[in-house]
Amino acid sequence: MKNDLERDLGLYATVTISMGAMIGSGIFVLPALGLKKAGPAVILAYILAGLVVLPAALSKAEMATAMPESGGTYLYIDRAMGPLAGTIAGIGAWFSLVFKSSFALVGLGAYLLLLIPISDGLIKIVALGLAALIVVLNIVGTEQSGKAQSIIVTAVVFALAAYVLNSGFIIEPTRFQGFTAKGADGIVTAAAFVFVSYAGVTKIASVAEEIENPDRNLPLGILISMGVMMLLYTLVVAVVVGLNDPNVLTTSGPNGGPSLTPMADGADQLLGGFGVVAIALIAILALTSMANAGVLASSRFPLAMSRDSLAPTQLATVSKRFSTPRNSILLTGGLLLALIAFVPVVELAKLASAFQILVFSFVNVALIVFRTSEVDSYQPSFKSPGYPYVQFAGFFGGLALLTQMGMFPILGAAGIIVGGIGWYLIYGRSRTDREGALGVILEKQQDGEVASSD
């Protein structure tokens, strides 16, 4: 049975898969939470989060053209810093992205309640059904999944554009008074919590092996989707702030907390009751799309780790019939279903955000290691502009946001690191003797020291 994947994703599918991993909770759930922390300046928090993500996006765009293979974050950190760091990154990125997909499917329950009054138990059953459907769609074929993603994302983007344009006529300017009243600390804290909104931008690198003409389509796909989403987030969040009473956004959610349906809260002012229904339907589509993109990307982490002998060999199997990593998708789908069924996913989403920030920071370090090592095998067709200053800014910016997450998410990220180290020591270390580009740098330094001592 062959273990190679087919390259059948064009530029448009690449862009929409990347955007699909971002259009979800960042627009439909998180704005009210950000407003509570930053006030109207939550708009700036989304821009700040995007700017912190941008260096990692540029770094991944470069590394993806040098290594157009499945694995994304895992692959780059592994090849740069060795299999121990790669194991931690692969397991952590896999868990955090599945957490995010689970959060998206469970989060759509709040919008589902706007359409039909159903019990919490039934909402969970609907989420499980959608998760199972997404798993089947990913097994049947990446091309089919990519086509479905393109259709959904295109429809959602047009709907959001219409939402923004129509809202421009009824926005209340007074909603923006006291724009920065909660200060810079509030903006930075909000940026840390909405950071996960952009985390999907680089997930397309995880399916690089299935993209046509990766030298062109990978960097273009990442940068186009990032630019579109930064603009879309800024406009949509500005509309949410301008349409709604801040008290409604910050206190109408569960247990008097922030609203979980901020996009729908002001929709009735646009189109009456039909507006709420329309936004709820769009939200359900978008959150399902986000979960689909998450499964598509996250299932490639076990595949790549298996190829490197850091995970069981069965996970490297590619279906002869569908040319997809069936076992890796089934493992990812199993975790997705378990999280939805048994775990308070909202809390785990915070842990996912913390680890995502950490991983994005070290993606920038990986690029610096590759450039410094000058290994012959690293030949990217696209090079990140502003190197190394952009990468240093991304690294330290990410660490600064991480400090605003609170102790529990930080401890959770530390727990994932410890788990990754444990898996490597128990399973991976005896099966691999590779070293990353960092080892090349250290060897050169040692050789230089020996030469100088002679």
UniProtKB/TrEMBL annotation:
Q: Topology in the membrane?
A: Multi-pass membrane protein
What is this organism's lineage? Archaea, Methanobacteriati, Methanobacteriota, Stenosarchaea group, Halobacteria
Q: Which organism is it from?
A: Haloquadratum walsbyi (strain DSM 16790 / HBSQ001)
Segments spanning the bilayer are 12-33, 39-59, 80-99, 111-139, 151-171, 183-201, 222-243, 270-297, 329-346, 408-427
Look up the domain of life of the source.
Answer: Archaea
According to its UniProt record, where is this protein located? Cell membrane
Q: For this UniProt entry, what's an example GO CC term?
A: plasma membrane
GO molecular function per UniProt: transmembrane transporter activity
Q: Which Gene3D superfamilies match?
A: Amino acid/polyamine transporter I
UniProt-listed Pfam families: AA_permease_2
Q: Return the InterPro entries for the record.
A: AA/rel_permease1, APC_superfamily
- The gene from which this protein is expressed is cat5
Cite the entry's keywords alphabetically.
Cell membrane, Membrane, Transmembrane, Transmembrane helix
What protein is this chain from? Transport protein (Probable substrate cationic amino acids)
